Fold Wall-associated receptor kinase galacturonan-binding domain-containing protein.
Amino acid sequence: MGSRFLALSRWVLIVALRVGLSSETCNAKDNSTKCTSSCGNIHNISYPFQLKHDPKHCGNVMYTLSCENNITLVVDLPPSGKYYVQAINYHNQTIRLVDPGLQNNNCSSMHQNFPPFLRDPYSAYNMSGYLLSTPVFYIKCSNPVNSSLYVDTAPCLHINASLVQQKTYSYVKVGVMEVGDLNEGCSAEWLALALLSYPNGHNTSYESVHSALMYGFDLRVYWPDEIAPICQGQWSYNLKCFPHTIPGT
Ligand SMILES: *[C@@H]1O[C@H](CO)[C@@H](O)[C@H](O)[C@H]1NC(C)=O
Ligand SMILES: *[C@@H]1O[C@H](CO)[C@@H](O)[C@H](O)[C@H]1NC(C)=O
Ligand SMILES: *[C@@H]1O[C@H](CO)[C@@H](O)[C@H](O)[C@H]1NC(C)=O
Ligand SMILES: *[C@@H]1O[C@H](CO)[C@@H](O)[C@H](O)[C@H]1NC(C)=O
Ligand SMILES: *[C@@H]1O[C@H](CO)[C@@H](O)[C@H](O)[C@H]1NC(C)=O
Ligand SMILES: *[C@@H]1O[C@H](CO)[C@@H](O)[C@H](O)[C@H]1NC(C)=O
Ligand SMILES: *[C@@H]1O[C@H](CO)[C@@H](O)[C@H](O)[C@H]1NC(C)=O
Ligand SMILES: *[C@@H]1O[C@H](CO)[C@@H](O)[C@H](O)[C@H]1NC(C)=O
Ligand SMILES: *[C@@H]1O[C@H](CO)[C@@H](O)[C@H](O)[C@H]1NC(C)=O
């Protein structure tokens, strides 16, 4: 897989272990009582998803979504925060989300939340441990960088050094980071997910990366029977359950 950011490889490891576990403890027993709710553009909210005020038998509490102002469907993934739901695909078990900090046609608007990589019953990885969406790294450099890997965020974004008010240059890099992708004097400041892919060296603008971010990113949804039953609502790892707050997440 090559060398990725330490944090990312750790997530991959955790997921690989988790997937191994859930295939062992699979018990296919779902109560798919038929209820269909709708909110905004999403007309087919059905089991295991439910809206906050739906009757209890409609879904599963782990898959609760809320409808705000009758137009926005929101999933709350603490501690990351809320996301707007753009689409639910029951066939391939994916949910497409957009960070609420991003505004259409405003490439200066930024994410409010760090992406939720693993948050039962959602995962940014598919069953084989691959990211479903492409990572987009926000990079800050002390000197201008002329690299085909880096997309200049100016004039949309300018991330200044926090302590010393020195001039900095900001870029995004689309796709996983390999060793050597981070130039000297540069640091990765933020990570986002988007459904886009193009080869290295592709000439693109930050505006087009921003529109891809507006389209959203996919998470894999694990159905109730794919999650270790005793751990529902919690992390599961090596047949043990953990509360959702894990140091370093
Ligand atoms: C599904 O849930 C409803 C309400 O809780 C219950 O009445 C029904 O018997 C359940 N069906 C199955 C197949 O478990
Ligand atoms: C809604 O989703 C259910 C599966 O949960 C599917 O059976 C049904 O055909 C879908 N309906 C529409 C209108 O997409
Ligand atoms: C929400 O929107 C639907 C369809 O536009 C409408 O039928 C319903 O009355 C609205 N509900 C509220 C609480 O505004
Ligand atoms: C899931 O299904 C949608 C629509 O059918 C498709 O566009 C998307 O590529 C699929 N995603 C995966 C990971 O297969
Ligand atoms: C665009 O987003 C930036 C950053 O959130 C904000 O300061 C600015 O007011 C927004 N512009 C418009 C026209 O909404
Ligand atoms: C996961 O994604 C990888 C890369 O896109 C793909 O090769 C693999 O078949 C996917 N696995 C599953 C179980 O969907
Ligand atoms: C950036 O690199 C390309 C190709 O290596 C070169 O053509 C271009 O002049 C460089 N631009 C700057 C501003 O140095
Ligand atoms: C960032 O630094 C530039 C150049 O020093 C300055 O003009 C700009 O106001 C700073 N922006 C913020 C948000 O501090
Ligand atoms: C990339 O595209 C921009 C705008 O279309 C153009 O000005 C620039 O010369 C292109 N750079 C390369 C290396 O093709």
About this structure: The pocket of 2-acetamido-2-deoxy-beta-D-glucopyranose (ligand 9) is lined by residues 203 (CB under 6 Å). Confidence is low (pLDDT under 50) at residues 1-31. Residues 22-126+218-236 form one domain. The CA atoms of residues 41 and 152 lie 34 Å apart.
